[in-house]
Amino acid sequence: MKLDSKIPEGHISKKWTDYKDHLKLVAPNNRPKIDIIVVGTGLAGASAAASLGEMGYNVKAFCFQDSPRRAHSIAAQGGINAAKNYQNDGDSTFRLFYDTIKGGDYRAREANVHRLAEVSGNIIDQCVAQGVPFARDYGGLLDNRSFGGTQVQRTFYAAGQTGQQLLLGAYSALSRQIGLGRVQQFNRHEMLDLVKVDGKARGIIARNLVTGEIERHSAHAVIIASGGYGNVYFLSTNAMGSNVTAGWKIHKQGALFANPCYVQIHPTCIPVHGTNQSKLTLMSESLRNSGRIWVPKKKEDAEAIRAGKLKPTQIAEEDRDYYLERRYPAFGNLVPRDVASRAAKERCDAGYGIEANDTNEGVYLDFSTEIQNKGKQAAYAAGNHNPSAEEITKLGKAWLEEKYGNLFTMYQKITDENPYETPMKIYPAVHYTMGGVWVDYNLQSTIPGCFVAGEANFSDHGANRLGASALMQGLADGYFVLPYTVSDYLADDIRTGKISTDLPEFVEAENRVKSTIDKFLNNNGTKSVDYFHKKLGLIMWNKVGMGRNEKGLTEAISEIAALKEEFYKDVYVPGSADELNPELEKAIRVADFIELGQLMAMDALQRKESCGGHFREEYQDAEGETLRDDENFKFVGAWEYKGDDISKEELHKEELKYEFIKIAARNYK
C-alpha cells in the first residue's frame, strides 16, 4: 500500500489557501440530498456536525454520553493556543508552527501543522462570537498566558474550564442545527462497526445503549471524532468512558493506524493514592505559569516527608531542588510535557519522591513564590508601597484565586489539603494520545469517505503535543478544515441518492456486531472486565509507559497476546443484550484496548530512537535527553490490520519531509 498524503505543492504559507480555492464544491441546492454521519460530539465532532449542518447537509451525530455536553473535551482546563500576538511578544503564525513542530520532536507533518497555525486566529474569533467567556485583562481585551514549550503568551483561557466553555459554544451551534432539523442527534448510541459499500464508507452499525437495539445508519461519508485511547492504561486522566472502539473498528475495515506508541504523559496530575482507584485527576498545565516544581535536595528530608515527620513548608529554600529550573534554565517550569514528566520520574526513581503511596512517586508544585510576587505587585498597584507580610500574602492569594480558583478548589476537595497554604502534590499520568488513525491532508483515512478528526487522528502533534493545542486542533478540524475537504469528496455523490440500509454489506456488519455481543454474553467466564483491563493497564504502564526498552516491550507483546487469549476464555459479562448493560459496553471496549495495546508495544519496539513521548532507554544522551535517529526514523509508522493475530500487522511508512523548518536537536536549556 502506498500512502498518499495529498500534500499540495507551493510555499507553506500559501498551501492551504491555494488548495482550498481549487477544491470541488457542492451547490447549496444539492447539499440536502447528501447524508453525513459524525461519530463523537466533543469539540471536533460537535464543530464538524454544526458546520456541515449549517451548510445544509443532512447530518446524523452520535455520542455514547447522555448529551454532547458530556464529551471529554469539557475536561480540558488550561486554554487554547492562537497566534494573535496580543501580548506583542513576538508571536506569529510561523512561530506557532515552529513551536508545534519542535514540541512534537520533528515527527509531525509540516503542511498540516502550518494549516493549524494559520486557522488558529479564526477559532478565537468564532468562539468569541459564540459567547465563549474568555478571560480578559483590565482594559477588556482578551488575556493570554504561557504554556510549556513556548516563550510567548498565546494561550487564551476561561479560568480553569476552557474546554467546557468552548464545548458549550460548539454545543450551542450544534443545538441550533438540531432545532432546524439539519442535524439528528443520537445520544446514548455507540458505533460498533463501519459499513463499506464498493470500498467506500457508507454507514455505521450502532447500539442503542439504553434499549440494546442494534441499528443501521447509512450516509455518503462518515466522520470519526471519537477522541483518544489513553484508557488503554486503565489509569489515565481521561473520562471513564473514553475508548478507542470507533477508531479501532475502522482500522479493522482498512484504515491504517499511525504512530500508536506516541502517548503523552502529563506532568501535573494528582498522584495515585490507592490500588482501587479507577481514574486520575489532572491539574491544569497553566498552573506551571505560577507554580514552581521541586523535591527536597536531601533524601533524608524526602523520607521524613513520606513518613509524615516533616511538612514541605518546613524545608528551607536552600534545601529545595527546583530541578526543572536547574536543568532547563531557558524554559524552567515551562518545558514541554514530556520533558517535565521524565524529569519528575528521574527524581522519584532516585529516591526523592514525596508522596507516601506504593511507589513513593510525587513532587511538589509550590505557589508560595507567586503569592509573594503578585501580592507585592497588587499592593504597589493599589498605592501601598510598604505593605506588611500579611497584606502581601492576602493580596497574592486573592490574585491566585481569581486566576485558578476552581482548580485550587478541586484539588482541595480531592486531597483535603489547601494549596494556598501547602504545595500541591503532583506526578505524571497518561493524558493525550498523539497517535491515531492515519489521515491525509484532507483528514481522510485510507478508506474513501471515512474522515477522522481531532484526537482520533494522528496528524498534527508529532511525538508530543504542546499544551493548549488539543482544543485548537479539534476546532480547527471541525470548523475550518472538514467543511472544505468533505465537500470536495461529496461533490461526486450528488447523483448517488439515498443509500439503503438493506444492502448485504449492512446485514453482514450487523451480524458481526451481534456475533461479538452473543460471544461475550454466553462466555460463562469467572473474571470481570475490569480485572482484565487492570492487568492490561499494569503491563502498559510498566513496559510501554514513560520509559521503554527492548526487553520490556518484547515481554509486553507476548504478555498482552496471552492476556487476550485469557480474556476471551474467562471474561464474565452479566446481563443481556436488550437492556442497559455497562459491563457489555466495557467488554467490547476492553477487547479493542487489548489489541491496540499489543500494537502500541510493537510500534514502540520498531522505533529504535527516543522522540517526544516515546522514550527508549537505550537511546538517550549523557544528560538523559532524547536521542532521535532522523536518518532511519523520520517517518510516520502506519499499521495495516491483517487479521485477528495483531503480530501480523504490516508497517507502512510515510516519509516526513521538512522543507521550511530546519531539523535540530530539541533544546530547552
UniProtKB/TrEMBL annotation:
Membrane-traversing stretches: none
Domain Fumarate reductase/succinate dehydrogenase flavoprotein-like C-terminal span(s) in chain numbering: 533-668
This protein's record includes keyword Flavoprotein: yes
Domain of life: Bacteria
Required cofactor names: FAD
SUPFAM superfamilies for this protein: FAD/NAD(P)-binding domain, Succinate dehydrogenase/fumarate reductase flavoprotein C-terminal domain, Succinate dehydrogenase/fumarate reductase flavoprotein, catalytic domain
Protein name (Swiss-Prot/TrEMBL): Fumarate reductase/succinate dehydrogenase flavoprotein subunit
